[in-house]
């Protein structure tokens, strides 16, 4: 095998996704990449997912386990994999044809992660918005480390939009606080090599009732859970950097704009009006971490959460957390602007 084609492991995890799993597996099998293994882990599905998965047993490695959650099923797939690079592909998402060939030139030993944009699609596979997140073509990790220290995160796609060098997932330690497979690895990757950002959509991210359920319930417990995981990932990152003797430090704070925003939304979810002091600290954090346009948008958002009645506040908060509505509105605004020019 040519040296520029390292082994790539695509790990697909599935729980009750009989409607989508076949299309997902096919999108992996149809990649014109010559050194590829595909592992599908069924996490105790109660629908027909496992029967569908077994139809591909001659082409992929099929594993079934008792339901243990997305994180543990992903770890099962990782333990079974041999790839120099690993790609965790959610069972309702897709890779576009030729995606791995476009990524192949970047799969080098000095690259810790390749990230690419995703096109949001609906249940039927129709595109419902612009590709996200907006990524600038880049092969540098310095700005990402700077963003982590400034904001606690950097601009990155959901799980299916990332391919990691294998060692990023080795010896991670305790992940009991986590629900997803790439919470701390995406933060760790810039410290262990170059992160390549591709400004093209090479995958499709499906928005449907099943995954929107996580956004549909505005609850204080859920939002506080977001804050807890956000901070736990940063503490875990600092621990890994220290344990591995990696050059660089993480400056932990308690006043990240994300933490302030989730605190505000938690207050709204509990039926209360956010205090002016909390809103002011949120705007101050946004000004420190982001550009002027984001500050203006956040100011309007905070003002709405303060002046609106309880029902209006809850609707605004739910809109902020609902990705399908956000992408649709963003696309409509972009279309309206282009028509008017």
Automatic annotation (TrEMBL):
All residue ranges annotated as the Glycosyltransferase 2-like domain in the record: 9-109
Keyword Transferase included in the entry's annotation: yes
Keyword list, A-Z: Transferase
A GO MF label: hexosyltransferase activity
Keyword Transferase: yes
Domain of life of the organism encoding this protein: Bacteria
InterPro entries in UniProt: Glyco_trans_2-like, Nucleotide-diphossugar_trans
Short name of any one Pfam family annotated for the protein: Glycos_transf_2
Protein name: Glycosyl transferase
Organism: Rhizobium grahamii
Species lineage: Bacteria, Pseudomonadati, Pseudomonadota, Alphaproteobacteria, Hyphomicrobiales
């Amino acid at each position: 095998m040519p040296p520029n084609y390292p082994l790539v492991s695509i790990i697909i995890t599935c729980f009750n996704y009989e409607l989508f799993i076949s299309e997902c597996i096919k999108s992996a099998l149809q990649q014109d990449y010559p050194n590829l293994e595909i592992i599908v882990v069924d996490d105790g599905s109660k629908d027909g997912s496992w029967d569908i998965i077994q139809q591909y047993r001659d082409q992929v490695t099929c594993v079934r386990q008792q339901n243990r959650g997305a994180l543990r099923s992903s770890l099962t797939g990782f333990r079974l994999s041999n790839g120099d690079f690993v790609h965790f592909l959610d069972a309702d998402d897709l890779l576009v044809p030729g995606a791995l060939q476009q990524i192949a030139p970047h799969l080098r030993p000095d690259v810790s992660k390749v990230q690419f944009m995703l096109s949001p699609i609906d249940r039927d596979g129709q595109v419902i918005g612009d590709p996200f997140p907006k990524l600038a073509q880049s092969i540098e990790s310095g700005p990402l480390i700077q963003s982590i220290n400034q904001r606690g995160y950097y601009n990155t796609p959901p799980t299916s939009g990332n391919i990691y060098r294998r060692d990023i997932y080795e010896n991670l330690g305790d992940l009991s606080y986590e629900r997803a497979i790439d919470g701390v690895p995406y933060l760790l990757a810039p410290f262990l090599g170059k992160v390549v950002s591709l400004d093209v959509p090479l995958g499709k991210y499906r928005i449907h009732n099943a995954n929107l359920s996580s956004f549909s319930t505005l609850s204080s417990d859920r939002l506080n859970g977001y804050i807890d995981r956000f901070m736990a990932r940063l503490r875990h990152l600092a621990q890994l950097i220290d344990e591995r003797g990696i050059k660089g430090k993480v400056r932990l704070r308690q006043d990240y704009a994300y933490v302030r925003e989730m605190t505000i939304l938690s207050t709204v979810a509990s039926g209360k009006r956010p205090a002016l002091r909390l809103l002011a600290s949120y705007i101050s954090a946004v000004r420190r971490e982001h550009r002027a346009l984001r500050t203006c948008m956040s100011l309007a958002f905070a003002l709405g959460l303060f002046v609106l009645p309880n029902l209006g506040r809850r609707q605004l908060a739910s809109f902020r957390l609902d990705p399908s509505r956000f992408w649709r509105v963003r696309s409509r605004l972009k279309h309206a602007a282009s028509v008017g020019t």
